[in-house]
Amino acid sequence: MADNRTKNEFTFVVTGVELTEEQQERVSRAIAQAGALALGDLAPADATPVRLSGKIWWTGQPKPNLMRELQEYAAAEAGYQR
Fold it and tell me: What is the top-level taxon of the source organism (predicted)?
């Protein structure tokens, strides 16, 4: 299994059409979601997508303390008691 330093980067280029910033962000998110889905069981089960900018997404394993903090925040927002 690859460590967290392994990096794969993909580019998607569209020409011949003008897209608004919102449309570009929507397409970028769809591509990121499709890429994560295509990885299937190759990606770690706790891989998390993070938007870096309107067109750039990162998917990977967050540091354990970040995931714990996110889970605590989500539980509080949902009113979920562990």
Answer: Bacteria
